[in-house]
Amino acid sequence: MANKYQRILLKISGEALLGEQGHGIDGDVLEQYANEIKSAHDEGLEVSVVVGGGNIFRGVEGATEGMDRVQGDYMGMLATMINSMALQDALEQRGVHTRLMSAIRMEEIAEPYIRRRAIRHLEKGRVIIFGAGTGNPYFTTDTAASLRAIEIEADVILKGTRVDGIFEADPEVNPDAKKFDTIPGEEVLERRLSIMDLTAFTLCRENETPIIVFNMNTVGNLKKVLTTDENIGSTVVWEDS
To answer: 10 Å Cβ neighbour count for 67?
Structure first.
């Protein structure tokens, strides 16, 4: 079966890398995610990734404890680079050629983000990891994922979470909550479902970029979302697309 998409952007939260730990990076989770990404890449897909930094530092929480918000957000960007470097190493240990691109210049460990260069890397079969968010405070890594996906003309944004998709209520609190297989973007807004922050969601809506929310912790799910017709996760659709 032909792949449903050719160029994808995968968004992984930093918190997901915690695993069962209270802080830092769980090596088992990191290995699983690297294997999942490799399986998608092996299908001939052009893969890019954005990883959050919440397992290491939360800028907003730091601000509420008296830290300057801008300073906290820049620290959060550096946290994403730590996670990105860990993922890069895990992928390269599996024989996957990668490029780490940073929105903040740090040439010793990453290339500066340049759109044309990023697209060229994808065309050459390299997995790109976008680090340091957008390079600006007050923007989340969800917004960075939406922005980069639009810039590189990704076919879809995949948001890897620890639940099976989009639900009418938090399934971890209400096990009977209904899951949506597909849901219009406007309904997401009306129901105030927390898929991603409003800035990120608005970017996707204005550019009619599809969003798929799925459980990244289920082995094989990423490949199934991309290559099969199995009902994996939930898809946000735009009425005009």
So the answer is: 15
